[in-house]
Structures
1.
Amino acid sequence: MTELSRRQLLTNGCVGAAAAAVPVEAAAAIARPAKEISPDAVGILYDSALCIGCKACVAACKAANEMPADVPQHLTDWNEHTWDTPEDLSGRTLNVIKVYRNGTAEKKDREIDGFAFVKRHCLHCVDPSCVSVCPVAAMRKDPVTGIVSYDPDACIGCRYCVYACPFGVPQYDYNNPFGKIAKCQMCRHLQKDGKIPACCDVCPTGASLFGTVKAIEQETSRRLAATAGSAYEYPRGRLGDNRPVNAATIPTYVKEIYGVHENGGTQVRYIAGVSFARLGLPSVPEQSPASLSEGLQHTIYQWLIAPIIAFAGLLVLVRGRVNSAHGDDGPKSQGEGS
Amino acid sequence: MAATSNPAATSNPEIDYTSCLGPDPDAQIRGTGSITRRQWMQFCAGVAATMGLSSAAGVRMAEAAISPARPPVIWLHGQECTGCTESLLRSYHPTLESILLDVISLDYHDTLCVGAGKQALDYKHAMMEKNKGKYVLVTEGGTPMKDGGIYCKVGGKTQVELVREAAEGAAAVIAIGSCASWGGVQSADPNPTGAVGTHDVIPGKLVINIPGCPASPYNFLSTVLYILTFNRPPELDQQNRPRFAYGRLIHENCERRPHFDAGRFALEFGDEGHRQGFCLYKIGCKGPETYANCPSIGFGDVGFGSWPVGTGHPCFGCTEKDTGFRKPLHSLATVKTLTPPTAYPQVNAPEGMGVSGGAAAVLGAVGGLAIGAGAMVLKQMGNGKNAAPDTSKSKEQA
């Protein structure tokens, strides 16, 4: 460090920047293989075209998870905590219905001069970033059901999960001195008793539908394959249960499924009558950040390779400097701080 | 209209008190038997209020309706259950007979005719001839079109012929009930008789539809009085229903609506939610796609809540062409919200309150400090000095 010149420092900086901009192909080579979905994974199918925006799911979610009412500060003028009016996911809201509105908003499921509803909650990624970044395993992914759960007793409140999630799902309750992370856990406490998530249980149209991911995939492709306007019996509650169906007609779907590829696949899937970008669902690359970061870390730290190389390099460096300093007045006391 | 002489006011025969006082409001109107002018004015004011008109319009209605030239009405029955007539017979302010005898001149009505058979039909034809271009035609019931319309005949003529014959000289045509409006129950799939509504029998002629199963008698009476008063039909919607009665969704005025908004639903008949009076949407209520004023005025004049949803049965959409008798009773309604609720969050709404001035200043100061310190470190290094950059110097720079 003693003779580190301005030129050297800037050069080193450039090399570091170039190393950070490793091409995607190289990154893919380092990344560990994508995770496979559990064969018994459960999920939710949200069909925006079926949603009527009644918010029964939001109310049921609050009741099932004992969450308080959420009134944003700027709404308190007209809503003095008499109404639950969440605007987004937060430390008090695990599930929210939002509206896409364009122009005159006359017709549902139309992009121009139309509107559509969208439900936001945890998508239960196959390869979740929040689980990958959690230093204390407070975030876990169930190996069988695939539910991404949260353990407040293990949590140290670092909020890495909040920043890691590409969907903006885990939220920290900043207003609470003993704050916790809030995120949808697919009502795993209800599933333990054989029940289904509250949002799917109460949905009047079957817009939120619970089931195994396999069954959801079949149902989704059936819907997208049906011709618009034809009669269709929409299941309600849980796929495979014998609840009364919702006899309706097939709307004009965008022939895409959100959640198949996003972030390495998710167990919550969306289909809709308008494009997902308009519904505010983020465009997320197929390769999950967790696979890349874990691949990188597990490669360079395997057998402690990286620390050994770094330590050896430092040894060589220091040794060379000590030798070259022999001509002067001896080694300096300040030395390397390594 | 003209009040008869008041016997109490004839003590001095030289002064005509009666004409000074004007019509006696409590005298019975000619020929009605029971209804007084006061009652009649009250009724018309009520009708005007129902239609959102001024009380002056109510007076005009009263005058128009009891003017001596009562408009003749021909009332035809097709494929129907006579429920609309029965429901009209049970209107109480005032009773239907006073309307029929004094407001309109009901010259022909299958159910209410005094005469029968040839006598009644001959009278109908005579009246139609006499009042050509002036009478009001009311149709009740659907018209079968299949096989030459043989499935409904009166006096040897098919309903198709009867409707076309009567419509030819009619000043206005009103279709009362869902059957006359668009075929009703007998037009349900597979529609064995090819039943259609009146407007399909006489295309090109304006038919005012008063759908309902049965139609609300007050929607019918209000429409009739409007036509009598203003000589034109009230404002109609795309399906020719008067807007004053069919302008709003049942869902908009339903007393169970708060339960819908709060996500509280009856899940089956007789369950806890049903007993609590929760929203009936999940058991097939068609209120969210049906335009009618049922929740506002109810049925049968017995007060609030006297309509299907009020009594715990889901609306089945009788006033909608494509809903009643066509959609299964249990199937969910299409929620026809005209625009999405304003209080719902937008998909990409900005979060938080934005950056405050203070926060921006603090952030700027910290950033400036860091940049200054970094620049100072580099400068020191470039000078080749050995001194380690200490914090006090970088603070100076900031």
Note: Chain A has one domain: 42-292.
2.
Amino acid sequence: MQKRSIVPIVYIVFLMLPIYWLVAMSFKTTNEILAGFSLFPQTFTIEAYVTIFTDPSWYWGYINSIIYVSLNTIISVCVALPAAYAFSRYRFLGDKQLFFWLLTNRMAPAAVFALPFFQLYSAVGLFDTHLAVALAHCLFNIPLAVWILEGFMGGVPKELDETAYVDGYSFPHFFVKIFLPTIKAGVGVTAFFCFMFSWVELLLAKTLTAVAAKPIAATMTKTASSAGYELGLLAAAGTLTIIPGAIVIYFVRNYIAKGFAMGRV
Amino acid sequence: MKTENQKAWFFVLPVLLLVAFNAIIPMMTVVNYSVQETFGDNLFFWEGLTWFEQLLNSERFYNALGRQFLFTFLILIIEVPLGIAIALSMPRKGFWVPVCLVLMSLPMLIPWNVVGAMWNIFALPDIGLLGYTLNHVLGINYDMTQDPVAAWVTIITMDVWHWTSLVVLLSYAGLVSIPEAYYQAAKIDGASNWSVFRFIQLPKMKNVLTIAILLRFMDSFNIYTEPFVLTGGGPGNSTTLLSIDLVKIALGQFDLGPAAAMSLIYFAITLLVSWLFYTLMNREDLNTEGDR
């Protein structure tokens, strides 16, 4: 152990403290929480988790969230792949302007779009469907996906494309058989980012759903206000929302730093 | 070199259609509202630029805008140096690297309202770990629902907790791309730690740091859910940032016209600052390509 490893350790402890508190809270009884301060759960209970896994209005929140997040990830990556290829390989009329315009949508405050989105998706009859949320999240996920993929594709030498054409590959064949495997890591990282930003976003997801496709995050806010203040239940629901993120991050752990740099290191 | 090919537009078309559907139609709705007055029942009256004038003369807007800039400024000057410092002291290879990266990324994968709720529970004066420690162990009077300073300290700490890792990861990605030979050369020349940082590490991190600052600027300027869940904009209006105020006007008071005008000005500011960063970044890209 070197002396300088103290800094990351202190930082990680700081990151883990609020998470620990949330998890600890989820195993306490409501009485214990309200009675006062205790560092560890005195009477360990999993009552809150039992409630969540047996009450459909709770566990459907998770299923809804996972459905629209997965749907959004698939749509974003599939349409971003050809676009990113075009940006990284060709010059065409208006390419720079188009690229910046795409990025501006990543900058748009979600609060600005909440009400118009509600009206738009009601008008096309998609209100309260998983597809509505998945499509709405494309607003900021597609530009991000194009940006990251373009960075990764820029790192692949153009000779690869030319050699493949000389060898007689058609474009679709080349793209799927040769190009995609080369940027596998980039596709994985992009999917991870789409998943992440769709999973953590709540304002639009909440605006576009009522009952059938309500995300878990919205279920939580409703409980906080209506059923008194059930901190234990809220903490347990919060703890469960951390798990999907922790699972997907495990798969991209070796590429994550490069991914955050948009493939541009 | 890239080849000129107009057919590339066909590759971009699906992206263009999807994003345009999500961006242009709602944006037109906002523009439409911003010049009209509504009395419910879908009755709309032409108002011209009244809302813009009213907004640009209202103290409330400038207060929210001022708070917003203060917030963004504070988190940038804390998160960027802190992130660089942590990235510099991280191990470069071995078992602990993925462990560090995964643990550090965890806060960014938590839904934003859960982040707010988590910090709310953490900061409760008598039963939260942070609130209890401050009040009863250190003896500092701390209650963020009463004291604006405490509320500000809490939302800043929350954002540092939430997003510093982004700066760490980006800086780290820049650092690991430096070849070992550079450090050996610096050692032979007898360079101090500071000159290694100033002349080797910082230039290599410049590109990724610009991305970090750009992303942190955009996201902190648009922040809504976390402070809303944590403080609800209070006590009073002390933590009412721009988008919290916007949602209050649009959905709370249902003043669609003023809210839409505010949206447009808000978006224009974000766009302007981001454009400056983006131009800066592309110029850097060109410079580094010239070096190769």
Note: DSSP finds twelve helices and three strands in chain B.
3.
Amino acid sequence: MDALTNVLVSGLLLGGIYALVSVGLNLIFGVVRIVNFAQGELIMVAMYATYFCFTVFGLHPYVAVFLVMPAMFLFGVVMQRLLLEPLRGEPLMQIFATFGLLMLLQNVVLALTRGEGMSLNLGDSASVITLLGIKASSARVVIFAASALIVGTLTLFLQFTLAGKAVRAVIQDQDAARLMGINVERTFLLVVGVGAALAGVAGSLLAPIYTLSPYIGANFIMPAFAVVVLGGLGSVTGAYIGGIAVGLVEALAGYYIDPALKQAIWFAIFIAVLVIRPSGLMGKAGAEEIGLSDHH
Amino acid sequence: MRKSYLTVALLVAGLFTLSSTQAQEPIRIGDISPFTGPLAQPASEFAAGHELAADVINARGGVLGRKVVVIRGDAGNPQQGISAVEKLVNQDKVDLFMGTYGSALANAASDAALRYNKFYWETASLAQELTERGLPNFARGGPNAAIYAESSVKSALEVIAPKLGKKADQLKVWIEHEESVYGTSIAQMQKKLFETAGVKVVGVGAHNFRAIDLNDAILRARGATPDIWVLTGYVPDSTLLLRTMRDQGYVPPAILMLGTGDGREFQQALGGFMDGIFVVNYPHEDVVPRFAPGAAAFMEAYRKKYGREPSSPYLVLVGYTSTMILFDVIASAGGTDVDKMRAAVAAIDKPPYTYANGYGAKFDAKMQNTRAFTNLTQWQKGRSVTVYPNEMAAPGVVLVNIPRK
């Protein structure tokens, strides 16, 4: 019984990580209708930026996040304006462009750091919380809380603010939104900026947990794709529920079946969802045709 | 009339230049490794060792009077390895190859090198298969996976078990490994060796080195209550496993890591938690000079060339050592012809402790250096200290934190 509780807690916390990483990807996916292959690298860059703030300025990651987040927002806006916007109407080229950005970011960071594995060490003492007799890394608990907070805030934003309603309109139908007087280009800038800012938050909060490498982005983004498909394209709460679900499945499969198979298991779920219900648990039907329809 | 004199003069000058160039034609070596990509850092450390060896030998007048030039060929996978070989042969006119951080890559590249009739000198990759396949142009100057596995089991039985007050048949080990052929092959060898010695292997766990959560691996091991937790992996998974262990409050009586765990990044990631952790790996530069005659001088040369400490000095050192063995082989072969080099490899006999990190040179029929070895180090107060074999450890070295607290 104790093992089961341990596994469930660990699965929930892992789900929090997946949810945090997936929200930004899902938002960009759902609104701009492109797969941002560089999302993992945005997280990676944010991790290094956080490391830099820590080692050079002595800023704790939970403080540095307030610098990293707006910086990443700007990066996202620039990425949309200079890289993606000029390729509008050519979704495949946009995807290739994000892939190119992925390689650029990886290699720039490799060149700057020589690929050495760097780690933030916040010290042993503050790192563990005990909940219900189960030990949990406090960094992961913070991530769990943060992802819930972010999803909650985003949902409120999308539901109750004018800009949020504009975003939802664009998710539903770009052309109709334009006809309603919504500035679709400005919405894209906002959304990609927010998506990148969310990657920034993820990077700052994840930095204390992992040894950084220029290639660590891929490790997060692979499960994020499964989460986004499971939860439903364009649905923020879907990404959250999908993340928690994938985290729990992975933790249970890893402990009770075989740690070597756990990734195969959520890939199997990924494929099954694509076949049975392509729009995911909570996605808007039609959102699955990413950019391959005539919507402009 | 003047034109023809000029032509003759030019021809004669040209002939002279040609002949003197022939005599000074450098030995070009293609160095194939994943210099970009996730393995860039260790790959570059090995290459730095190769290039430092080239610097040192050139300062002494080169090999057979010829300067040595090392040309890097970046290859992230076997296919790129083949392309790199082709480019280095056709464009850079290399005489032979060396490498390679990654056994699959070494396999493909050395195969390609054979088609061009070039020798391939391995300094890094560990897979048994590389020498077992009996390729006529392939020799390995450093240790292989079996040497690693044997050394780790020996360390467990002769160093760690006595400190835990356990005999072999009372000992329980958990073998954790990364799931590619690297970790799996070593884990399989370790399991066999442990069981032959009467040790109980309470579990074998495989994990993906890119995993972002390894809680299950720790929970499973904890449930099996091993005396020694043994790990073969890479940096990202090893640091994550150790952090998870720390966060979960799981304290196995002893931790033994193989192939990774003694680098600076571990100290940075885990600080004092590392104290007491044992690592089996290439000899470190702190080995007493009698058994590592060039190590101190080599460290100086590195600092001078790069202006910083190497982050994994033992990797650079073994790359350097292995390359110096290669130069001796070329010298005795009188050149880089494959058959002559094969003969030179078979004939070379340098006693243990000849080279900078303590290696000797004596190759078996499959061209594996039998005088390459690994040592056991332990983290003590933030430093990686050689503890075994005893004679190689600095005087006064004792073991700490065992059983772990």
Note: The mean pLDDT of chain B is 91.
4.
Amino acid sequence: MLTYRKAATLSLLFPPTGIPAMMHSLRAARLAREGEIESARHEGERARDWSWYSVGFGLSVYIIAFLAWLLLTNNHAVAQVFFGWSTMTDGGAWKSLLKGFWINVQVFLIAEVLVLVWALVVAIMRLLPGPACKPVRVLVTVYVDVFRGIPALLVILIVGLGLPQADVPFLGDFSDRNYAILALTLTYGAYVSEVYRAGIESVHWSQTAAARSLGLSYTQTMRHVVVPQAVRRVIPPLLNDFIGLQKDTSLIGALGVLDVVSRARFVNNSKGTLTAYSMGAILFLLVTIPFTRWLDWLIRRQQAKTLAGR
Amino acid sequence: MKTSRLIVGLLAAGLLATACGSDSTPAAGTAAPGGTTAAGGSAAPAAGGNDCKPVKAGVLSVVTSLPGPNFWGTTKAEVDPDAIKSGIEYDLANMLAAWCGLKMEFRNENFDAIVAGQIDPKSYDIVLSQVTITDDRAKVVDFSVPYFKADQGLLVNKGTTVKTWDDVKKLTVGVQASTTAEADVQGGAPGWKLDKVKSFPDLASAYAALSAKTVDAVMIDTPINLGQAAQSGGKEEVVAQFKTGEAYGAIFGKGNGKKAIFDPIIQGLVDDGSINALIAKYLGGDPSTVPFVDIPPS
Amino acid sequence: MSFLVLRDVTKTFGTNPVLRGINLEVDLHQVVCLIGASGSGKSTMLRCINQLETVDSGEIHLGGDRVSGRGIDVDALRREVGIVFQAFNLFPHMTVLENVTLAPVKVLGFSKALAEERGVALLKRIGLDDKAKEYPDRLSGGQQQRVAIVRALAMEPRLLLLDEITSALDPELVGEVLNIVRDLAADGMTMMLATHEMGFAKEVSSKVCFLHEGVIHEEGPPEQIFEHPQEERTRAFVKRIIDAGRL
């Protein structure tokens, strides 16, 4: 243990940091034999640190090497198909993709806000107390089960093709983009409502007891005491669901709308490649990654302000 | 509270987006040479204008399912669907629009939805999307007279030998989902059933699989495969085709009378060789040079 | 009729009969202490009074009105009866002042300015007005409990229930909390305390009730209960307390 012998041996798999690790390990062993425990421990810790460097740098280098090999092998086959230079430098292709991506952006901006609100409504309905509210709870449970169980693609098709066909008043006249928003709100609303529900139920009952004891009604208690605490807790899982939503906006292509994925497919067909898909992926990453980091920052800020009695 | 202000901000951004963005903007086509566009709608036909009863005044509303290389946009040319200016069906659409005395506008729809009759007939006049005429599809939509013979062709990497149906059976064949090729090789036609089949959501993926050699062949209408072969720089060839008697037809809403209006003009364009000219112009290969392979009845 | 009356109140949790017939009368301005072993039903009794728990049988009357059973405007009841819990239960996402003003604004309809003015005055009384804009997690246990008391007082209840409010506190913080209760008693607040602080109970209460096995085994003035208990069980309990050095 003192010498981190096993770790040092393993880290020889990446010699640049493995060799120092091994050297420190051997030195630690020697010092231990000579009875210099303090120095031996010191060397042992250096060995451990170098072993960790091996893990970090070694993995990175090997992964990059693997990816490079993947791209270049077989006469650049993968690189050409997925990262074809002529397509990636085609300004017209990027312009077309951006036109499509703007549609995805609209859809997820609006859908995200609607989901935040709708899912909370659903969660609260699911938690209404008392026997008189049982039919409501059952209805909502059915909604959640169904919409979590069906693929989002099916929901978009049924909503986007079915509603206009049935000539439903008002709902039958949406644009394709609004159908996509509706379908995604219904689908993701079901998932996110479960997240809210878990958050609400995780707020200790003593908070409700204290609030009710002050004379606050059920609604006031939920609104001022329970839901604010619940929402703060569930921001991380909500974030995960939203990234899924951002990507699922591409399902709007099923309604014939030329979003970024559909346009990428068009570019690919024109150029005989699959590179436009990579380009589309880059556009998505340009949104999802900053979004994730921003929300991480939001969470840190919230937690700094109010540690919930931990 | 910062968060609620953020949400309001997002909502505002979204609503602003509502105001600006518009989806599925129909792309305007140019009138084919020699035609004039009618100013008004369906009433008095102007020069070249026959009464086509368009759903939108002054416009021939065309639906297609993109991508449709060589039919809508030529490969290596347009990368933006809004900028399509060529292609067999694009030109055909313009010819029909000119005959009607209308402007041509086209939009994109999902192929599955088209052949399932799910596109609202009140929203389009005609569909031109390399759709093969089948009895099942005819139950939900009206087809025009055939304008394009489409026997199934087999695209392979150069060097693959295919002389008999048994040779085909040894190959892993890629098909595009929802096409008649897919239906055929899954046993839709007698004797056609293949065991090693891979179905792809779009044609580009199937072709990519062929280059990557994860399939040995791609089966789809001969002219489409010929277009791909021409693009492959000699690496791929259409080595065989199989008689199916299939053909493309334009689609109209079931029973809405458009078939009677357009059939004569479409037949006329077939008869006077206009369509063959388009095929020669865009596909560069003559389907009749590809050897036929017989499929033994099972 | 006394201000608070409990008549034959029973309450069972599952198979466990916690209250087996409580009979108690409390007059205005009285301070009643409930003592007894853990599980004897002290907390349950308090929670039944403001309907955090519902009684299985029996009745509770407050100011002449029935407040137990069905058909009661529970929110109205809770405006009259304040309760402070062992675990403080402050709202962690609100500042101290917001904790104190939330109910007066939302329930009593005070304007925010008025509620804050009164809230600050109350906080001043307990010496915590400088913490008004802090969040609860920055306060010590004793400070949080004092805020909890003030939060209940902000509603101007006619009856204040205190459920073992010092049991979760470090010993050196107990005193500051008890000081407030002492002041409230001197001001004439009608209170009912469940407590283990026997010395305090002896000092401040008008009446002490010893709960044993779900009933009030003995009740009387503090001198009686602590110095000459009449019942055997009471004697045994008090002796244990004294032996433990807590009296």
Note: Chain C has one domain: 4-235.
